[in-house]
Amino acid sequence: xxxxxxxxxxxxxxxxxxxxxxxxxxxxxxxxxxxxxxxxxxxxxxxxxxxxxxxxxxxxxxxxxxxxxxxxxxxxxxxxxxxxxxxxxxxxxxxxxxxxxxxxxxxxxxxxxxxxxxxxxxxxxxxxxxxxxxxxxxxxxxxxxxxxxxxxxxxxxxxxxxxxxxxxxxxxxxxxxxxxxxxxxxxxxxxxxxxxxxxxxxxxxxxxxxxxxxxxxxxxxxxxxxxxxxxxxxxxxxxxxxxxxxxxxxxxxxxxxxxxxxxxxxxxxxxxxxxxxxxxxxxxxxxxxxxxxxxxxxxxxxxxxxxxxxxxxxxxxxxxxxxxxxxxxxxxxxxxxxxxxxxxxxxxxxxxxxxxxxxxxxxxxxxxxxxxxxxxxxxxxxxxxxxxxxxxxxxxxxxxxxxxxxxxxxxxxxxxxxxxxxxxxxxxxxxxxxxxxxxxxxxxxxxxxxxxxxxxxxxxxxxx
Length: 464
What we know:
Layout: H1 4-18, H2 23-41, E1 48-51, E2 62-65, H3 67-84, H4 87-90, H5 94-109, H6 113-131, H7 137-165, H8 170-175, H9 180-195, H10 207-211, H11 216-240, H12 246-266, H13 270-290, H14 294-322, H15 336-350, H16 356-370, H17 375-400, H18 412-430, H19 433-447, H20 449-458
Antiparallel strand pairs: 1-2
Helix pairs in contact: 1-2, 1-5, 2-3, 2-5, 3-5, 3-11, 3-19, 5-6, 5-11, 6-7, 6-11, 7-9, 9-11, 11-13, 11-14, 11-19, 12-13, 12-17, 13-14, 13-17, 14-15, 14-16, 14-18, 14-19, 15-17, 15-18, 16-18
């Protein structure tokens, strides 16, 4: 069943090449079918695997569905579904979006290191086509080069892991005895390989150009693709390598937070400003993952979910504004629903009370204090002060400065989606369990290597 999450969008993507006129309809069909499959499965009871070709692990390739991979694919496919509801927004990128959906699902679900490399390469290539929208070719090419180099380093890490353990199966590698020197080499290479998609400093130079170059790229790459990449950080450094290499991740993440927020404060382009904000929030998530406990990882993905919802709204609204107005001053006076949604999402971003971001930031800080880590909370508080600076500045400009005489038609579907998601951020503040329960299940699954190993190596369901 879980293989359909990859097979359906992949099949429909090939169909759409022959019938380009219906590519947007096929994208919607793929998104809704995948979402129905996931809702029907819900959180699995234990670890379920699909052994491709009936090859029992650790031989062959297997797909793994546990609480971690389920929550990740649920969030990722939910964002793809929301994008599919806006056919004008998708334009002629339905085929690319279906390939990206299939690759992101495969990247999350695979239990094989080499297979994860293959899916990451497909994900990068299709993301590049989306990044090139609106003739953003230079930044898309830069992303392609960086992604290609990162993929090569990720492959090299996989080769080292195979050399050290004789296996590519994640569960098998997790239980293998690896020498300290080999672990250092492997985890360092995986840090670099994942660092581009995870937006870690100094590997995130592509983000502002890609996110600021068109309206579609930040909405889907800043939510679904980022979530998939950050899921793999938790899977590799939590489940497979048991926290080895976490110190390097922690250091890079803290630098990423400060560098991202400072860059966001200095930006005069709204899409680029929140692109750098996305970099900083990825740093927060990676730093929490690096703490290595089930609670810290659960809170990391709780915060990531809150941030992804907020960023979806922010990028959706900002993209509409940038490509419909030359002057953004006072523009929300003409689009009050979009403006209210944007403001609510930005308030959640800074962790203002009454919004979801407050719940995740407060819980992370309290957890860090209990671990006697005072540096990370200090960095988070500094980052929040910087966030307040540019969030207030953009809201004042968009709401209160002398308004432009231009007038663009309000996108009804996009406005409705933005408002619903903004209200969801308030609902999560009032009832954090909406996201928190799933995120904590994800954290527990990523931290519990023993159950993952037993589930993968002892249970085989299906075949293909």
